[in-house]
Predict the structure.
Amino acid sequence: MATYRLTVNGQRKEVDVDPSTPLLWVLREELKMTGTKYGCGISACGACTVHVAGVATRSCVVPVSLIGGPIVTIEGIGTDPVGRVVQDAWVEKDVVQCGYCQSGQIMSAVALLKATPKPTDTNIEESMGGNLCRCAVYVRIREAIKSASQQLK
Amino acid sequence: MQAAFKTDDDVNLNRRSFLRVSTAAAGGLLISLFLDLPALAQEGNQAPQTPPAKVYPPDAFVHIKPDGTILITVNRLEFGQGVQTSLPMILADEMDADWSQVVAELAPAADVYKDPVFGIQMVGGSGSIAHSFQQYRELGAKTRAMLIAAAADRWQVTPDQCRTENSVVYGPGTQSTRRSARYGELASDAARKPVPEKARLKNPSEFRLIGKRVRRLDSRAKCDGSQKFGLDLDLPGMKVALIAHPPVFGGRVKSVTDNEARNMEGVRDVFEIPLVKGSGVAVVADRFWTAKQARDRLKIDWDLSGVEYADSSQLRTRYKELARTTGNVAVARGNDKAMAAITPANKIAAEYEFPYLAHTPMEPLNATIRFDGDAAEAWVPSQFQTMDQMVIAQVLGLKPEQVTFHTEFAGGGFGRRAVIDSHVPREAAVIAKRFRGTPVKLVWTREDDVQGGYYRPMHAHRVEIGIGPDGLPAAWRHVIVGQSLVVGTPFAAMMIKNGVDGTTVEGVEDTSYNIPNFHVSAHHPTVNVPVLWWRSVGNTHTAFVMETLIDELATRAKIDAIAYRRKLLKPDAKKLRSVLDLMDEKSAAWRNKLPKGHAVGISCHQCFGTAVACAVDVSIENKRPKIHRATIAVACGLAVNPLTIESQFQGGIAFGVTQLMAKGAITLKDGRVEQRNFDGYTPPYIVDAPVMVDVHIVPSTDTPTGCGEPPVPVISPAVVNALAKLTGKRYRSLPLMTI
Amino acid sequence: MLATHRLLLRVFVFMLVVLATGMAMSTHGTFKTWKRETLSSEARRADGLAGWEQVYSVLISPRCINCHTATNYPQQGDDRHRHFANVIRGGPEGKGVPALNCVSCHQEANADSTGVPGGPNWHLAPLSMRWQDLNDQPLSSGAVCGAVTDRSRNENMDGRALLKHHEEAELVLWAWNPGRRPDGTSRTLPPLTHAEFVAATRTWVEAGTPCPRTK
């Protein structure tokens, strides 16, 4: 066990966990923030995506001991101007079905739009390429990203 | 168009069910459904009652609070299909409710929430809207009638002088003179009114919500992380359990070295646990990560004696051989000798292979149970509440109603949460029994899920077709080999006929193509791999075989793929004809100006009462099919929520692409599953899915039919039909490893 | 306690490596200290080429070549399969694309509890330093040597700089500390120890970085 001081959505948190514990489980079980999802545990589905120091990060494979920056999760992304626009676009386009993967999809989409405010279809396919949606509502995800992009101009 | 569903007031829910009305504890109107308790029935003849003291099993469907909030209970699981929005829409429409005040809740397990057709509480067979449409309409209409009765009493007018709109009852008079009352104000008075035996249902022209593109009620919560799924449940003192399952199905624990695991901080117990078949080792810890680390440190010696080692390549050989012999007969129509009369040059013999497929819903399987000795509480994202509750009760030595069963939101399911043996809740109950008073959450990791069985079965088909002089099939002999989904279960009596499991041959035996001499038979080998329905069930493989062969016949006859299907469809295949026409019309523009290197693929299929036609624009990129566009036409009767239907079809056809993925197969070698996670069994990502999907619904006021499963079957045959044009090859073996 | 054991083990392994290297040096001529003036240029070239072949055996080992692809994706595993989840090269820096960056998973150090390798500035080698063809087959020894020594393609490194790169570059060093796979087993190491690799590089560099003739 070791103590880690984390900044999550702007708030200072202290957790006492095994250093090998992935950030995902620190968020979900220690901090009770369950918006970030467990889907595969090997970074193949993207459901666990959060931002660490602004970088979209697969929290299921990164041990808390290697976290080196402030964390933003789905619960906090709504206070970010791009984050809010993306969430609203998701609701406007009625993207979700089961919704389980959408926290990760939204976190990836925000990272994409922050770096590339006017993404092409190829940009979208590349950046969202590692986020699985088993309901497979990919056309609506694509549409919502484009809609958010337009509002961000 | 004539409405085929009942708009009259001659409908009743169920002979043995009665609506009951009561004042809710916190005030307002509570409409509940009583089952099998005629003595307490109030319908048509009742005195006002105070709410019953018991909370479980619950029976409420509608609860209008004094503040106007309308709580509507949804009698089935929400796992993406949208019923948490569309069933309340139906009820709210009939009661003229203010949609902005509607709150939907998932029903726990209770008799009143059973599917009116299936007789158990479940989601499956695309039955959510199809089976509960009428039920929710009546509930809405009767609630509205009671609110009107309360207002009429208050104003000393007759009910027929009143009208309703947006949660307000209006009395007679002009806009300036008439009186009005909000539903919330009337709720307590309405609770003293008898439930009318009959209530007039709307004509389709009067619908305000039904037929409109209404956005989902659960959207915002699913976009800001606040929606709780089963796996997100957190209870005071809760423990997390993982199970080490045997490497071969049915294996047993011989011995286990668990010192290292037991000594880990936060590990509470390690013990052998009986499974549906064989046994495993359960690890219970304070946290998931601890449980996983501890499980990884177990050294288990397995007893695999007497257990069959299934092996995909051996099965393939065995299935192919079986397919060359006639199985149990599902259909034998026309002249059995017809095939013999066809010359070899006019025959096609085709052999198809399909692998095991895992469902892999995004939310890994889980169940949380607390056992309190004389009662228990369970939280399960379940498609099969009745069965799951029963099994939990059995394991714990309780009656089902002693198990308070909460339906948790599920992150997908596709059939994987509708398991006849309820193995996940069963395992959770065994563990919970040992931890009396402590809630335990059992989690199946993704590896457990991918390797844990309950797959769409592996199949082989062999089809021999004799082509007539008109280019149409004159004789058709079809043999299907695959495990039965229900043999040895209580479902067998209902679903197996003449030794044929209906789910194996559906989509072939009931084909709408007019084939005069038609013979379909099936073999159901027994294999030591648990199998299960996978979204659209038998149609996953049967539609692929039918629609690729029809395409091949059309090509051979040099007839356009759409025209050929029109020619071959039975005259009464109205739904299929209507979707072919609509798809043809909506896709004509892009089909007629395809870029170089692109090809069109066509398919159509009817299942679960819904007909679908599909046209796809496909090219080959990086040695894989690139699906640029899909135009879909749907005939599903009355479209309750066209937005949901559009989304179901957009997602459902991309879900169907799973079958075409290079790594879209579960394979076994020496009894062991060769894939572990999404790196080895890879469903479609965004790049694999169609770039664009336009969905067109045939206008109708007929009884609604399902939209959950029908999208899946059409896409894979359409794509390979397009590929066949690009490469000249026919694709008869899935997954699509190479093109 | 565990950490101390690991440290001791590492020291022990290191000593073994040193001993083994020493023995190799004394038994084979390859690693002998150079007496440049006494060797003919032809013999030097032959020694250099032999050194290069050893260097090459390391470069085409999965721990190195998996990130020196000619395609738009990295590889993983000893069978050098395409990286899962559609991970791609991204821009010229080879760090992936927004939302799917290398560092979305690969941190400054190996994450042994989850099986994800890591090191400072994890990224793909530039296309100029590809050591494979478009079918994911390793290029010939001569072709790789040509790429490695071409100063217009190798960030202007001369022999001395190449040697330093092999001695010190953090991602090069990672190949000998590649961490654990997700199943807990250790990743395969390159065919030479790091010390042998550096010694072979020195031989090759001191012979003037000769390259085999490409066919």
About this structure: The radius of gyration of chain A is 15 Å. Strands of chain A lie at 2-8, 11-17, 49-52, 55-58, 71-72. Chain A has a mean pLDDT of 98. Chain A touches chain C at residues 20-22, 41-46, 49, 55-58, 60-63, 66, 68, 107-109, 111-112, 114-116, 123, 126-131 (CB under 8 Å).
